[in-house]
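hiii, so i know i said id send this last week but things got crazy w the move. better late than never?? heres the sequnce for the chain we talked about at the cafe, plus the structure i predicted for it. fair warning i was half asleep when i ran it
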Amino acid sequence: MRIYTKKGDKGTTSLFGGKRLPKDDIRIDAYGTVDELNSFTGVLLDTEPDSGVKSDLLQIQNCLFAYGSILATPPGAKQYVTAPGQVAIDFLEARIDSMENELPPLRHFILPSGHLPTSMAHVARCVCRRAERCIVSLSHEEEVGDDILAFFNRLSDYYFVLARYLTFKAGKPDVEWNPREDKE
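okay and structure toks below
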């Protein structure tokens, strides 16, 4: 089977069920951004030696793939994937709480830098927020479900806490944002 079909050469793509949409449709943007987030999560997974974090990230990748598949299915078409739902949200909340229990209190805004895996977790957080914005835009046009919105909101929180956790585990301090008070 060839990877190229030439069917998208005119700027459209197929959803599950065969419906074709322009490649700049908000639905395509939503599941494409989820796919991008999944790829960044994979890069982060490949740079992190902690087996517990790797296990978490692999579970998150599976959730992202499921939600991407759901977003690639138009209303009324058969869903082939079950939404991760509240179980995935509960998992993220438990992991956030567990990591935060080990971290010093956050007293300043922090910059997304200081340690390569930390920076990569911040990139994933930003891409996650973009995916969430796309999904919210899609929700203005059709029902997407509360669980998907809650999942992506919680997932961006997870990536933020993970960034701090990775910094902490590396024995490095958070890079605090200190705006200059003596502005010129």
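btw The domain at 22-74+81-102+109-169 is CATH 1.20.1200.10 (Hypothetical Protein Ta1238; Chain: A;). thought thatd interest u
miss u guys!!
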